[in-house]
Write a structure and sequence with these properties.
The complex is a heterodimer of chains A (219) and B (155). By secondary structure, chain A is α/β, with parallel strands linked by helices. Chain A has seven helices and eight strands; from the N terminus they run αααβαββαββββααβ. The longest helix of chain A has 16 residues. Chain B is 70% helix and 0% strand. The chains are: A alpha/beta (219), B mainly alpha (155).
Chain lengths: 219, 155
């Protein structure tokens, strides 16, 4: 079994050397959402289901509900799109000046990168994922999240007032370049605090865009 | 009680920034007035709505909102004062600069940071003097660093 786990981790996830079953295989990095996790089911998922790698950076004193976010993300992606989310690593960085981010804008088109955004999105770039999530407190406008990012550094930030669905909502702006939808049952409603009938849905078109994303890979 | 159009409601309540600029740019003159009314002396608007209204007015460059924003500051929470510092730095001018000087000694460090960055956007001799003081006297070392860096941009 352990030889098989090592082989799968190496072949499919590029993880070698000393392995943590909890972190490197199950992708569990926090204790806020305890649940039974089947190693066999996870090994099957790793080998057979397309996935996207995401690294996590928490700016010190921000208070994320990290595992809830990862588990909710996987609930939506696996349930609707047959894709899973693999957190490659999670670190904490000290940068008080970035806790409340001064961003020029959060626009999907014609985005201007502030010096603070530039500094934030430099972090976590060696954690094994092309997409990095930053946990901060927020920004000047009171947003819960933003997926605008500097060119060539895919990522998004999530604030301390995030809803249970903010994290995967922002990820989905990045993966597949999905826009907002008007349906409150859908993950991409512009206020995830108003989502009805959770877990929220992703439609076929949205899933197609996700599976076509260049950061989706398969073992 | 203020009746919101769907457009204002979207601007105030979107929790993802993906479309905030686009939604804000479509606000009509009447909708801008409605945003301003959220900051009035007898407003019952929530703190998050006040914060968002101030932020949007600043980003839209609505200089006519300057006085209302300044008058609203004593009634704001920490996040609202962050938004006010952000807005004033973008609206610019002497009144904004004077208010930002006050906010640069706010009790909340993130408010002070936004005030420092706002002052640097405005620039000028008085700003350089204030940033020099903050770069030495602020109780937080990281705020002193922010002031020092902004000083290099203004000089």
């Amino acid at each position: 079994m352990s030889a098989n786990i090592r082989n799968v981790a190496d072949t499919c996830l590029d993880k070698t050397g000393r392995l943590s079953l909890r972190e490197d295989i199950h992708g569990v990095y926090a204790n806020d959402n305890p649940q039974n996790r089947s190693t066999l089911a996870q090994l099957d998922r790793i080998q057979n289901m397309p996935f996207v790698r995401v690294a996590l950076v928490t700016i010190s004193t921000a208070t994320p509900t990290l595992q809830r976010d990862l588990d909710n993300g996987n609930t939506v992606y696996q349930g609707d799109c047959d894709v899973w989310i693999y957190p490659t690593d999670s670190i904490t960085a000290t940068a008080n000046n970035l806790l409340t981010l001064d961003q020029d804008d959060c626009a999907s088109n014609g985005h201007s990168v502030s010096d603070e955004e530039d500094e934030l999105f430099d972090l976590g770039r060696t954690l094994g994922a092309n997409i990095v999530c930053y946990y901060i407190n927020g920004d000047g406008s009171g947003l819960r999240g933003c997926a605008a990012h500097p060119p060539g550094r895919r990522g998004f930030w999530v604030g301390s007032a995030a809803s249970p669905w903010t994290w995967v909502h922002e990820l989905t702006h990045i993966v597949g370049d999905n826009s907002h939808e008007g349906n409150t049952d859908n993950l991409m409603i512009n206020n995830t605090g108003t989502i009805t009938n959770p877990p929220p849905d992703l439609g076929n078109d949205q899933c197609d865009r996700i599976t076509d994303d260049p950061d989706i890979e398969q073992c | 009680m203020t009746q919101f159009t769907n457009q204002i409601r979207d601007v105030l309540e979107t929790d993802c920034g993906h479309t905030l600029e686009e939604l804000s740019s479509r606000l009509t003159a009447d909708e801008i007035k409605a945003l301003l009314s959220l900051l009035g002396a007898h407003s019952k608007a929530s703190f998050p709505h006040r914060q968002r209204a101030i932020f949007v007015l600043g980003r839209l460059g609505k200089t006519e909102a300057m006085g209302t924003i300044i008058n609203a500051i004593p009634e704001l929470d920490d996040n609202g004062r962050v938004a006010a510092a952000d807005a004033l730095g973008r609206l610019g001018g002497t009144k904004a600069r004077n208010e930002l000087v006050k906010l640069s000694s706010d009790s909340n460090a993130q408010v002070r940071k936004f005030a420092i960055r706002g002052l640097a956007r405005i620039g000028g001799k008085a700003v350089v003097e204030r940033l020099r003081t903050v770069a030495v006297d602020d109780p937080q070392d990281w705020i002193r660093d922010v002031a020092h860096k902004q000083l290099q941009k203004v000089k």
